[in-house]
Amino acid sequence: MSVQSILESIQGSALASFMRDTNPAMQIVEATHVLAAVMVLGTVLIVDLRLLALADSARALTRVSRETLPLTWVAFGLAVITGSLMFTTSAQTYFGNPAFQWKALALLAAGLNMAVFQSFTARGIATWDLGKPTPAARAAGLASIVLWAAVVLLGRWIGFTKGYDFTIPPGVELVFPAD
Amino acid sequence: VRAFAEWLYGTAPSVAIHSTVWLVRLLQAVHLLTAGVVLGSGVMIALRAVGWQRADEPFATVWKRFAPWLASSLAVMVATGIAQTLGDPVREFTATSYWVKLALLLGCVAGTLLLNRAARRAPAATDFSSTAKLVAGGLILSWLAIALLGRMIGYDLAIWGSWSLRT
């Protein structure tokens, strides 16, 4: 089964038809996706700023993570569900859109950054849990902020491209209705 | 309101914004990023008041941690929001979501300040009253609604139907 045929079957599914044809399903899902994405960014930032020792310096990093990350995971779960629903509507177009590809790459890098931190960098956390994190931990925090901000911005960029990627020929004026 | 918005659309500052595509995109991007910081900080303050986050810390400590981030990101979010409104006043002013979002934002700012005031007036070890916790619960929902409504401005008719100011 080729990637193209998988995309075609996703786009041709009953769920995709429902999303495309039911007003205002897509609009509500998209708005919820934006809400979830900014919530992920806002809560991840709390942990990352602690990693960078720019905030919550008197509070143990493990504690800040334990308190905040459940909110992040809830928001992330919501973002994945709503993002998947949006993807079904134009799977082939999204898949070929460079902004979507970059977003997927940034998402993957953010996940990888988190996995490396959990598996290696955080091993000796007991020694710096209450103090200033190690340079590697601070680098992970900085990378996390950059990558999650990139995920949000690239998500917005998909909207700018209207799901397509093409160059408008000079002299051609496109008028999009407000709604 | 529509007449005023149409007049505003023709003014020099509005033309300068809506005719510069990269500026519109930059404003939207910054607005979105700062919305994340506003949401994160605002919700954390409200969650502390409810007692669901950092209950071991005095409210004053949580306030000191999150209020500066909330205030500064809110200032940027409002500034970029005003610039976007100026750039496309007809789209914004004729959207029900826009006015509801604005009202909720004002309510959130007032409610958050009220929580801090209530905390400062109460004895150190006292927990928030049930009323204050109710206000904080309302604030959490309102902060979330603000982010939701921001995106809904573009889909006002589909979302609000006959309640949309665009009808």
Task: Explain what this protein looks like in three dimensions.
The complex is a heterodimer of chains A (179) and B (167). With 179 residues, chain A is mainly alpha-helical. Chain A contains eight helices and no strands. In chain A, helix 3 runs antiparallel to helix 4 and helix 6 packs antiparallel against helix 8. Chain A is elongated. The mean pLDDT of chain A is 91. In chain B, helix 3 packs antiparallel against helix 7 and helix 6 packs antiparallel against helix 7. With 167 residues, chain B is an all-alpha fold. In chain B, 80% of the residues lie in helices and 0% in strands. The chains are: A mainly alpha (179), B mainly alpha (167).
Short characterization:
Chain A has eight helices and no strands.
Radius of gyration of chain A: 20 Å
**What pattern of helices and strands is seen along the backbone of chain B?**
HHHHHHHH
Number of helices of chain B: 8
Contiguous runs where pLDDT drops below 50 for at least 5 residues of chain B: none
Number of distinct beta strands of chain B: 0
What distance lies between the first and last C-alpha atoms of chain A, to the nearest angstrom?
Answer: 38 Å
Distance between the termini of chain B: 13 Å
Q: Give a quick account of the main beta sheet of chain A: strands, pairing sense, barrel closure.
A: none
Strand element count of chain A: 0
Pair with the biggest interface: A-B, 30 and 35 residues
What percentage of amino acids of chain B are in beta strands? under 5%
Mean pLDDT of chain B: 95
Low-confidence stretches of chain A: none
Oligomeric state of the chains? heterodimer
